[in-house]
Specification:
Blueprint (H helix, E strand, L loop, with lengths): L2 E8 L12 H15 L3 E8 L14 E4 L4 E7 L5 H12 L3 E5 L1 H6 L9 E5 L3 H12 L5 H14 L2 E4 L2 H13 L13 E3 L28 E5 L9 H14 L3 E6 L8 H12 L7 E5 L6 H7 L2 E4 L5 H5 L3 H8 L4 E4 L3 H8 L4 E3 L4 H11 L5 H14 L2 H4 L1 H6 L18 H13 L5 H5 L2
Parallel strand pairs: 1-2, 1-5, 2-4, 5-6, 6-7, 7-8, 9-10, 9-12, 10-11, 12-13, 13-14
Antiparallel strand pairs: 3-4
Length: about 450
């Protein structure tokens, strides 16, 4: 069995003390669980997501938890300045067979290990598409160089890559080409694979028969349209608000219930603008904004809602990204209503697992919601849950990682660098020198 050093994120979905669950922590456990099940030994450096724990724990210095003989977790604040030195010290002690970076920023922090062992980088979402989406919302390109540095560093150093969708995988291959890594040494080498999000139900708290929505914030016969998670920069709040308002005009039983909210430092303005729109709506009382709620409450909301909703605007993050909220709704048996954009939404449409509408189509959204009120949706509940259990399971989606860790190797171009500067003349001269051929500049230009 392999010894694997992993740099990922916390909190993991197995942590009861977590106040919030982030996609990065879900992705980290998604990769780790199958490795543990296969008998591998894992040392996890978990970079803690902000404001994630109930007791406001401070991780300025590493906190180590020995979970089992197979798993040790070292949690630390992701901005800790001593991380790099500490990581290498632990690397020398642990002596892993390979290293994994799970999510983009942890992969970036772990790139220095690529000089010493085979390194797999999981780019959970296309960072440059996310950066463009953020730039559009804030009206500034000031952060683009920072994100580009992170992406380019990982692309230069990792031996293997995973993306969250087939669409992102091909974008990544384009980045590899521009970095000079699609070269003579790597011809025929499979750099990247697609690993869609997976979500397996984890019950940390025993559920009972109590209700948190019905009889509290909604009537027993209300049609609850449920939204979960952060209001990120690719959320189309204009279509969502307008579509919901039109549906509420047509049917007084439709009620919108939302958990989650703003993402500090990233998308504050999206959520704030949505709240302002609600405050000015004639249906204000039918928008129930619960904010960030304890993780143990989420199963109750899924159980009591009628449908779950996802509404994305057109941008390249939507086309290349994933949607954890849809994975969670499907595995929980909540019928989904979503814009057709991300890869998972195409799975939903082609396999008749839920309901889709076009990006920006508020009339289509309204008509769809109205048509679902009072309808028996149990067939979608079962079909979606069965599909998710089979194709979005941890083990099924991470098959490529399972194979790689059995015999991890450096990429064929390790230690070899190609400069793409200089164009045809420079590359021709280099080729001639390597082959010991003497030729005139005129001849090289004609090659």
């Amino acid at each position: 069995m392999a010894k694997i050093l992993i740099c990922g994120n916390a909190p993991l979905p197995t942590e009861k003390e977590a106040k919030k669950q982030y996609a990065a922590g879900l992705r980290t456990w998604h990769f780790i669980k199958p490795l543990l099940d296969a008998g591998h030994q894992v040392l996890l450096f978990a970079l803690v997501m902000p404001d994630a724990y109930k007791d406001a724990l401070v991780f300025k210095k590493p906190q180590t938890e020995v979970v089992s003989d197979q798993l040790t977790i070292i949690r630390v604040d992701k901005g800790w300045t001593g991380f790099a030195q500490f990581l290498h010290k632990q690397f020398r002690t642990f002596r892993p067979d390979c290293a994994l970076g799970i999510n983009t920023y942890p992969s970036y922090r772990a790139t220095t290990l690529a000089r010493h062992c085979p390194f797999w980088a999981d780019l959970n979402g296309w960072l440059m598409a996310e950066a463009q989406s953020q730039a559009g919302v804030i009206g500034s390109d000031v952060y683009l160089p920072h994100y580009a540095k992170i992406e380019q560093t990982i692309v230069r150093w990792a031996d293997k890559f995973s993306a969250v969708s087939e669409f992102q995988k091909w974008a990544l291959i384009g980045e590899l080409a521009l970095a000079g890594r699609m070269n003579s040494k790597t011809d025929g080498y499979e750099f990247a694979t697609s690993i869609p999000n997976a979500n397996e139900t984890i019950e940390l708290h025993q559920m009972d028969d109590r209700k948190l929505l019905r009889g509290k914030v909604a009537a027993e016969d209300d049609f609850i349209v449920f939204s979960a998670g952060g209001y990120n920069t690719w959320l189309d709040i204009d279509t969502l608000f307008t579509g919901l308002g039109k549906a509420m005009d047509k049917n007084p039983k439709i009620k919108f219930v939302s958990t989650g909210g703003k993402i500090p430092g990233l998308a504050d303005s999206v959520f704030d603008r949505f709240i302002k729109m609600i405050d000015g709506s004639k249906h204000k009382d039918r928008f129930v904004m619960l904010g960030w709620v304890p993780s143990e409450n989420m199963p109750y909301y899924y159980r009591e809602a009628n449908v779950g909703i996802n509404c994305d605007r057109f941008n390249y993050e939507t086309l290349t990204g994933a949607r954890n909220r849809l994975n969670e709704m499907m595995i929980r048996g909540l019928p989904v209503v979503t814009t057709l954009g991300s890869e998972i939404t195409h799975d939903i449409k082609s396999n008749d697992l839920g309901f889709t509408y076009d990006i920006g189509d508020s009339d289509g959204l309204a008509d769809l919601l109205v048509s679902l009120v009072g309808r028996d949706l149990s067939e979608y509940t079962k079909r979606a849950a069965d599909f998710a259990k089979q194709y979005y399971s941890y083990k099924y989606t991470t098959r490529a990682v399972a194979e790689w860790v059995k015999n991890p190797k450096k990429a064929p171009d390790f230690g070899y660098r190609v400069s793409l500067r200089g164009g045809k003349l420079a590359s021709g001269l280099r080729y001639m020198r390597e082959k010991g051929i003497r030729a005139s500049v005129r001849k090289i230009v004609k090659m």
